Amino acid sequence: MSRISLDYDAFESAPVAEKPFPHVVVPHFISNDDLKAVVSDLPEMKSGGSFPPEALKLTPRVSAMIAELQGPKLKALVAEKFGLDLADAPTMLTMRGRTREKDGRIHRDSEAKLVTILLYLNPRGEDWASRDGCLRLLNGPDDVEDFDVEVTPAEGTLLVFPNGPATWHGHRQFVGTRYAVQLNYMATGRKARYELRRHRLSALLKRLPFSG
């Protein structure tokens, strides 16, 4: 198994964009060669929705990547980049493999999620030429066409943003394969504890034979 390298130097040097809300985009956070290896190892997810990694059969390569993403180095860099105290923030990570008609509707993430990190594990191809399924950082909650930034969900691109009252995002309808890892640094209040418990329960249920 070859280890997947994450480009922490690129993240450190990437500027924080302020519009429509503070965020960082890092193209090729995973290199093209490593991305090909990861894509070949990704588990099949026949249904939509989010899967905790504990509910999936992961290869050692993908498991190592997941562990690295949840490790202290990325958390420390994110905290420094955005001036946050994340020392005691629990992590919650899920994977997606398919996008459904209902996915991508305009939303803000739960206030229990202090920071949202998205890593896109798709090759760049014709699927994204229409811009359907490309994540948009929006100026408000009403119109998916009213955006400042559009992120193509491909080529190991990393997107990081602290959550807040104006962090509206979504994408135009897309149905098909769309691999993404979502990592959140969580608050420690009651609502966050509830989300983490639900996350663990979801992992248990999705491991059961009848869940697939």
Automatic annotation (TrEMBL):
Top-level lineage group: Bacteria
The Prolyl 4-hydroxylase alpha subunit Fe(2+) 2OG dioxygenase domain extends over 106-185
Q: Matching InterPro entries, A to Z? A: Pro_4_hyd_alph_FE2OG_OXY
Q: What is this protein called?
A: 2OG-Fe(II) oxygenase
